[in-house]
Fold these 2 entries.
Entry 1:
Amino acid sequence: MLRNIWTKRSAITFDLGASGIRALQLRRSNGHVHCSDALHIDHPGASESEKPDGPTVDVAQIHRLIGQGSFTGSDVALVLSPLEARFYPLKLPDQVLTQPSDRILQALRWEVAREGRCAAEDVEARYWRLPGGRALQANVMAVVISTKQAAAWCDEFSQHRLNLSRIDVTPCALVRSARAHWTPQVNDLWGILDLGLRHSTLTIVAHETPTYVRTLSGSLDDWTRKLARAFEATLDVAEDLKRAHGVKAAGRVVGAPSETRSPLGAADLPGAVASVFREPLDTLMDEIGRCFSFVMQDFPEHAVRTLFLAGGGAQLPGLIPALERELGITIQTLGKAPTGASSPLSASETSLPPNAAAAAGAALLDLEAA
């Protein structure tokens, strides 16, 4: 009886990515958060080029996965990326923001419909207030999905006796996951770089509020294809080389193999892989720097403190020291508590890999209200 009173469980949360599905459920007990169960399912029978660009919500598959895990309940939450849930920084009149919530949402729908050239009745919107930077024009951030699509998902889940209780978005979920481990200061500016298979997203946060969300050029799949072309190898071989060597020898300049050069020795391989990645790595670091500089114009009193890495690319060998050298800030992987940090999360949760951080952050939302 006491366990039922003091234990709160999140919805069964599904992060639907291009490379696979992360399913996770958290529970709060005695003031600590624990992972009830977590599953990571790769998309079966698909090569890198055949994997879907975005989430395919296969409700029948989700229903089967719930049966395979040690999950409790019928409430389900979905986590969508910025490619499926669009973000709009908007300027609303101050008098509108003093109205009841439904009036604000109505105004947001009309603004988003005008910006996106779509029908206002097919816009499902949520928003949060943006902090008052000096040059900042927008005062709210709206995130929207299609009303028809959301309703269709609800119907499909109900047919399997499941309840779609919430739809979350990756940037907000990752910020929530980071905040579970780390407490920023009032004038801190920090970010989360989500390195996914098909796209990379940078979210910049002023203190505790996400203020800037941008999809960057390039992706992990682009890096793999570039390596495959340079080495005249299959995508599977290029993926293995990328995961084994990454950019950890970025300081060495060794050309990729070709018919005019002798084959590379084992000692040359890390440098050759890093040389192929030199251009996309420089592009990535340049984009990150420009994004932070842009946001700093609105928050000149803030200082850039740290950048968290999430997603499948967060563990690319050599990436953290390369980013730290170029950006001059602390870089750390999301999913583990920083050394010396106090965290309400149990050891089982803090050991989750970076590609589970979005699902964990989304699940935490259910427990915050507990």
Note: The chain is about 35% helix and 25% strand.
Entry 2:
Amino acid sequence: MGFKIQKELVYQIIFIICVAVPYLNNYELTFIVWSITALLTIRKKYSFSILKLIVFFLIILSIAFISSINQNFKSYNFIRDVAYLLKPVLGLLVGYQLCKSHFKNPLNTAINAGVFIAVVHLLIVGYTILFRSVRTMHELRMYAGYFSDFEIYILILLIFHREFQINIPLKKIRWFIVIISLSSFFYLARTNFIQFIILFLALKGYFVLTKKSIVVLTTIIITTLVGYSAIYVYNPNRGAKGFEAFLFKIKNAPIEPFKTKIDVTNWKDFNDNYRSYENILTIRQVGNAGVQDILIGQGLGSSIDLKKEVWLQSSYMRYIPFLHNGFMTIFLKSGLLGVLILLLSIIYFFRIKKSDIKLIQNINYLFLGTGLFLFISYWVFMGFYFTVDTKTIIIGFLISYKELYLKSNKILDK
């Protein structure tokens, strides 16, 4: 018995490490840790549900490989792209395999990992404010992190703890909610706020069309439009600090990814709409290369010429292998065919069967919300392919947990 407990503790630590390592923003380290974990926890059998999702990403990688034939890309760039395009596969396998056979209370393990990440983040926030004298939103996010999808999923699990039959004392759950809520807020990430709202509404069942859901969604849409209009009229200052800077990001959010004309000589217009600039150049570069490139992309090792050096993260770059936009990145690597497969991987979350079992249906609701959020996530932050993204781990984890629950209760997933 002692050995079993010790073994479970080891796997819990491994799980926390796998969740935490992307936050270091070093994809080489993430790739190594996830690859080793996936190999150490490999299974003899896999369900059709997880294999179907993984196959989508393997097909995208295969298309990119085929389109790379006869291309003269550097070996390093080729290998780097293989590693990046494998990220969703590795994340799904790590989450699925660790949950499948190594935890007595899988959801408790996921929650503990989320709380650990939140506590570390809050300590970094505190240190940054107290000892680095950071006072602006941009500086805070630069030092403490830009977003955390994993924490939002854990926050949702905690809020709906009854629906997910989580066996943790209520007082502890309330403290966990406070900790993760504070941590999530201090990321000041628009996408995380949107993610929370979408997942919350999904768990409430409001994306299943009924009279009540139509009224609720209509009210939310109207309220959002009125709120955005108020912010637009208020016209927050671009160079403002604190909350006003956050309002400026909200004001610019609907415009930034969709603008079709950008004045590159105007640094304000260029910086505020840089994501659109990447998209414009990608469509232009791939489109001008011919029908084959449009259909299957320019392959592993390809990059976009920004036409000038741009400061990105920690250095000036002119040629970038990956864009902020996940759809455009796949268009570059695997063409329209790759984008189609990527869309099918999102639709996967909408085609999950309805269940009469409350726990399973709530997991399905969470997957439905995930599918809706992925459209935004891929457009803004590369979705599953983003180097610091951890959504794939929790998705693989929940697919596995769902199967374990059905098996332990001897229920067929009809």
Note: The beta strands are 304-312, 315-320.
